[in-house]
Structure prediction request, 282 residues.
Amino acid sequence: MSRPSINAAITEPLWVKTLLITLALGFIALFLLMPLAAVFTQAFEMGLSVYLAAITEPDALEAIKLTLLVVVIAVPINTVFGVAAAWCIAKFEFRGKNLLTTLIDLPFAVSPVIAGLIFILLFGTQGWFGPFLQEHDIRIVFAVPGIVLATMFVTFPFVARELIPLMQEQGKDEEESALTLGANGWQMFWRVTLPNIKWGLLYGVILCNARAMGEFGAVAVVSGHIRGLTTTMPLHIEILYGEYLFSAAFAVASLLAFLALITLVLKSFIEWRSGKRHAAKH
Prediction:
């Protein structure tokens, strides 16, 4: 069979391409761009002064601070765990490897609300560790530690899941060569492994960061909705909306959306750099 006839057999007609592109763009406009535009429109509907007042009032500031605090704690811990888990799975063969891989995916399969209820069952007043925690005056649920734990649970697969296929594809020839030439473990990691995985690692960290900032279900269960103390930005938005303070709710929501857009830009940049690096290697 000649090449033109092969290309004709595997190339879609122009009208099919046009239809698919139109459907994809229409779907994106309807379900992504319009809601995003509506958030910013509603946020500034009452004017800039109302907008600034909504995002600078004390409870909003506390919600922003708590959200950033949770991100600062959860993301680095998940990054360390993700690198360690990916290293174990990609570089070593051991009994239980498939089980570990499955457990890493567990938060993707479990509803965030269920995850929150698990922490209530463990650390609540009537939970397994409740009497011990009360005896030692330690508070986990309805406090910041519970919010951090819930956020860590729902976000910990992101870094590991990004690195595992990347490290498996790269193999371990370069690490073994470094060890053969006299490098110790840390020198091998910093000078060989880390440069090879840096873009995948950054990609996973950004996804983890985005989910940590926007997590609602698990955090809502363990937070107790104590205004100004245990409300993150998504919870604060819910409270404002429930009180019919629509402009204030959309103002805080626009701030969260703005952070998400920054994340999207960084994600696109990393994808571009990673693709460029991969193309250069081949």
